[in-house]
Amino acid sequence: MDIRQMANALVWMAVAATPAILLQSDSSIAPSQFLVIYLGRETVTDDPRFEAFTHSLERLPADLRNRVRLKHVAALPEMTRLEEAVSEAIQMRPAVIVAPSTATAKAVRDKSAPIPVLFSSFTDPVRSRVVDSMGQRTEPFTGVWMEDDLDGKRLEFLRDAYPQIRTVAVLMDRPWESNCNAMSRLPRVANSLGLDITVLLADDAEEVQRVLDDPQAAKFDAWYLAPSGMATLHAETVLARLRAWGKPVIVGRTQYVVDGAPISYMVDIDFRWPAMVELLTRVLRGEAPGSIPIQRPYRIVLAVRPTPAKGFPPPSAQVVRQADLVVR
């Protein structure tokens, strides 16, 4: 082999070795991490939804699971604290912000930050001004809408469960009332069922206490506790008072029946956290949030406790027979 041939051979050997060298170099570089901030409506130790979301992250694909760094920021119900929490989250420049309520999603939207947001909401996200459209969106938002138009049906089940009732207090917060147009719509529904309803509004603990302390509150035959944000935070207080009064009640969360309430009718939201993880996966892989469809529920559950917690009257056998879930 002459000198020219030897030189050419050395060049080809170097070229052939280059990919292996680069591969070895690349494998020594740790993949980047993704900071995901969760805006909790309670402190981290008192936030069951954050715990549920944390557990659901086990569903992330293996190549993403160990790269996600999850941080809880307490966006407490007070408006000033909510705004402070959102500003704090944005300043950390996360890969994604998880806004698990309409209030947190709206607070992030108001900041117009170019950060992907995954939201969950019980109210219509367009009417609530979380997003501009259910279709393609310019804002970097996607999420889950627990679409719930069941207020009228809950009143029907309440009437069937307790045929003797006539007057019903309907307790919800103002965002729920606005989204469902309850003040104008529900009285007509109630009238067709032979019921006389009063819609009571409360947005925070102080207003809830004021409603319950009103002398007229104990005079209603029955109550409907709508699954609004207020109920998420203060259902225990409301249900304890109704038990003390011995009042029939229907709620919008199955968990309250598990805890002792007599009857609930709810959109099955068990799909929420797996759906959020699927959306998170798509966003972390580079998909534009505004192009990802907003997820909706596909099942409704009537849950009944034939022997509810002491103080609550039992529902009728007719409604127990119709139940999708009987809690004993």
CATH superfamily of the largest domain, by name, is: Response regulator
- Spatial shape: elongated
| Overall pLDDT score | 89
Specify the CATH class of the largest domain.
Alpha Beta
The tally of beta strands, per DSSP, is: 12
- CATH topology (level 3) name of the largest domain: Rossmann fold
Helix/strand structural class: alpha/beta
Low-confidence stretches are 3-29
Number of folding domains? 2
Side-by-side strand order of the widest sheet? 7-6-8-9-10-11-12
Helicity level, as a percent range? 40-55%
| CATH architecture group name of the largest domain | 3-Layer(aba) Sandwich
The helix/strand series, from N terminus to C terminus, equals HEHHEHEHEEHEHHEHEHEHEHEHE
Give me the number of helical elements: 13
Cα-atom radius of gyration:
26 Å
Main beta-sheet strand count, sense and barrel state: 7 strands, mixed
Strand content: 15-25%
| Termini separation | 90 Å
